[in-house]
Design brief:
The protein is an all-beta fold and about 110 residues long. Strands 2, 4, 5, 6, 9, 10 and 11 form a seven-stranded mixed β-sheet that branches. The protein has a four-stranded antiparallel β-sheet with strand order 1-3-8-7, with no helix packed on it.
Length: about 110
């Protein structure tokens, strides 16, 4: 059974940065595509970033150029580095593998506020 645990969320001022981490266990990480989703209050969940098993990345237009997804296969970790944060980035961020019907972490809250 795959388990995902996120960390690194918190409160940050507009223009600031945060780096989220996701630790993977229970499966074969190096072949897994990993995703970061986010869900803001009252809004639908949004796919923010994807990294494939061979390191190809894809981003939502809303985060492109500001967020960077990466992975460390040796540590079974996935990261989301977030820069130039704005209030619209406030959301719960979820680590995922396997898509909508795959495995999800519990989420980590990111709040961007002055």
């Amino acid at each position: 059974q795959v388990q995902l645990v996120e960390s690194g969320g918190g409160l940050v001022q507009p223009g600031g940065s945060l780096k989220l981490s996701c630790v993977y266990s229970g499966g074969t990480f190096f072949i897994a595509a990993m995703r970061w989703y986010r869900q803001a209050p009252g809004k639908q969940r949004e796919l923010a970033a994807t990294i494939t098993s061979n390191g190809n990345t894809n981003y939502a237009d809303s985060v492109k150029g500001r967020f960077t997804i990466s992975r460390d296969n040796a540590k079974k970790m996935t990261y989301l580095e977030m820069n130039s944060l704005n209030v619209e980035d406030t959301a719960v961020y979820f680590c995922n593998t396997g898509g909508e019907y795959g495995y999800w972490g519990q989420g980590t809250q990111v709040t961007v506020s002055s």
